[in-house]
Design brief:
By secondary structure, the protein is an alpha/beta fold. Among the domains are: about 1-70 and about 495-534, Urease, subunit C, domain 1, CATH 2.30.40; about 80-200, Diaminopimelate Epimerase, Chain A, domain 1, CATH 3.10.310.70. It is about 30% helix and about 20% strand. The protein has 18 helices and 23 strands. The protein is globular.
């Protein structure tokens, strides 16, 4: 492959109809229409004519009618899991366990691997009941099947898989997990939270090369969506190769064109402390985030930890991590310079996270702690995150699929769910992401959900608890400047000295409303001054 002309790497002038810098407008200054890039860094932002005169040697990329924004940051994605999930059978459209099983059989016929894997089944698409292993056994009695739920907090497996994992009627529930059983006490094939680890440990390993290839393909897809940076988090179930080694191998080979803020799992905390790893370590392409912990499960699997029972039940969900153990890990991580990134969905879990992370003794200089999801805000605590300088990392697209489920299972607590406006007005730092593969990685869904609070059928009219809507600029800030601040890093704005991560959109997203946001087109993506999509 021939080398690119040096001028392309040194200097680039991008001209459009308008530039939204998201750095804050200066009164009286003309509307910027161009960005000048030198050596991967923004050199100037201003009127096209003025910047042309500054850089006569620059390559010019003219995008008539387009609007430029900073590259988007997906502040919560499971990168390697999503990359590999794109190669598995997608069950998200299945409206019954039988329909899901039929998709699995069709997929099994096309794969050589012994294990048949899929993702995305959602019991709320067929009334809410968990599926049963017998549905799979009737169609695939001999091959082990492992199907991860829509929210990644439950597994549905068949009898051969239960045998491999040695899960029987007398197998005890692991701490922080539950083996769903029938009336006779036999496992039904559904494993919740930490019970999934009983299967995960007997899975055949996915090689680093397989993961690297999948991540490379996924990176291309992210560029088509205008995403130039990701905060990637370990999932609760350990099923994929450790991502840091895969990412570093891609970077060393020049194949990584995505800025990655990589969080580490709790199981690696001892090793991270031993070798002196700290939050913020790294370089231009890969930086280390916080240690990821889980306080509860998820709404879809009805394992989110609530202060009051789910509607019509006595269940309050699952507390995955003991309070004393959580506080202990937060403190020792903080002493080593490692911030905490904690999964908390139910109001009881969010309250616990706020209580522990607000302690001044666990502050990590230069890197804020984060609460991931913050789906149900505890009553009367809207200002606590701001006072403790915590990031509320939220995924607006969940609202599209969840609002009816919240009404069904949490009732009146829906008024405190996905409380974007309440948190923002209280001074909280919001960072927005997709949670892919739980939801699609497409940020247009998040922009739509944050600004309309409606599903893709435009329901409910006026938006679900519509007073919690954000403006389009606020929604973009959640995917740019605020997300960059959550990682204590550069980027998220188009200003001199910042990384030249730029996206061109048609039409102008700041003039789009409602369903128009879903039709936005990313027509060019630039990462570190390099055009990666045009």
């Amino acid at each position: 492959m021939s080398a690119r002309p040096p001028v392309e790497l040194r200097s680039l002038l991008v001209i459009a109809n308008r530039v939204h810098t998201l750095a804050g407008a200066v009164p009286g200054e003309p509307v910027p229409t161009a960005v000048l890039v030198r050596d991967g860094i923004v050199a100037a932002v201003g009127e096209a004519a003025a910047l042309r005169s500054m850089a006569s040697d620059a390559r010019v990329l003219e995008l008539p009618g387009a609007a430029l924004t900073p590259g988007l940051i997906d502040a919560h994605i499971h990168l390697s899991e999503w990359a590999l999930a794109r190669r598995e059978v997608d069950l998200s459209a299945a409206t019954s366990p039988e329909a899901a099983a039929a998709l699995v059989v069709r997929h099994a016929e096309s794969v050589r691997a012994e294990w048949v894997r899929g993702r995305g089944w959602n019991p709320h698409r067929w009334g809410g009941d968990y599926p049963d292993r017998q549905v799979l056994d009737r169609l695939l009695p001999d091959r082990p099947v492992l199907l991860q739920s829509h929210d990644m907090h439950a597994l549905w497996v068949n009898t051969p898989t239960l045998r491999r994992a040695r899960i029987q009627a007398d197998t005890p529930d692991p701490e922080g997990g539950h083996i769903v059983r029938d009336r006779a006490g036999a496992p039904t094939g559904v494993l919740l939270e930490n019970a999934a680890q009983l299967v995960a440990r007997c899975l055949p390993a996915v090689t680093s090369d397989e993961t690297a290839d999948a991540v490379t393909d996924a990176q291309t897809e992210l560029h088509t969506l205008g995403i130039t940076s990701v905060h990637t988090l370990p999932a609760i179930h350990v099923m994929e190769p450790e991502p840091l080694g895969v990412l570093e191998a891609l970077r060393a080979r020049g194949r990584l064109r995505l800025r990655v803020f990589q969080h580490i799992p709790l199981r690696q905390l001892d090793e991270a402390i031993r070798i002196g790893l700290r939050s913020g370590f790294g370089g231009e392409w890969i930086r280390v985030g916080g240690v990821k912990m889980f306080l509860d499960g998820a709404l879809g699997s009805r394992t989110a930890w609530m202060s009051e029972p789910y509607e019509g039940t006595e269940s309050r969900g699952i507390q995955v991590l003991d309070a004393g153990e959580f506080r202990y890990h937060v403190k020792r991580a903080a002493r080593a310079g490692i911030a905490t990134t904690v999964h908390a969905i139910g109001d009881a879990a969010v309250a616990r996270a706020l209580d522990v992370l607000a302690d001044p003794d666990v502050r990590v200089p230069g890197m804020p702690h984060r609460i991931e999801h913050v789906q149900c805000l505890p009553e009367g605590r809207s200002g606590d995150a701001a006072r403790a300088d915590l990031t509320c990392s939220m995924q607006p697209a969940h609202l599209i699929t969840d609002w009816r489920i919240v009404d069904r299972h949490w009732g009146r607590r829906g008024a405190r769910t996905y409380a974007f406006r309440t948190l923002l007005d209280a001074g909280a730092r919001l960072a927005f992401g997709s949670d892919a593969p739980v939801e699609p990685a497409d940020p247009r869904l998040g922009l739509y959900a944050a600004t309309t609070r409606m599903d893709l059928d435009a329901a409910p009219a006026g938006g679900w608890y519509g007073d919690e809507r954000l403006t389009i600029e606020e929604a973009f800030l959640g995917y740019t400047r605020w997300a960059a601040a959550a990682a204590a890093g550069p980027g998220g704005v188009l200003a001199p000295g910042e990384p030249a991560d730029i996206v061109a959109w048609q039409p102008d997203p700041f003039r789009a409303q409602g369903e128009e946001l879903l039709r936005l087109r990313c027509i060019a993506t630039i990462v570190a001054g390099e055009i990666v999509r045009s």
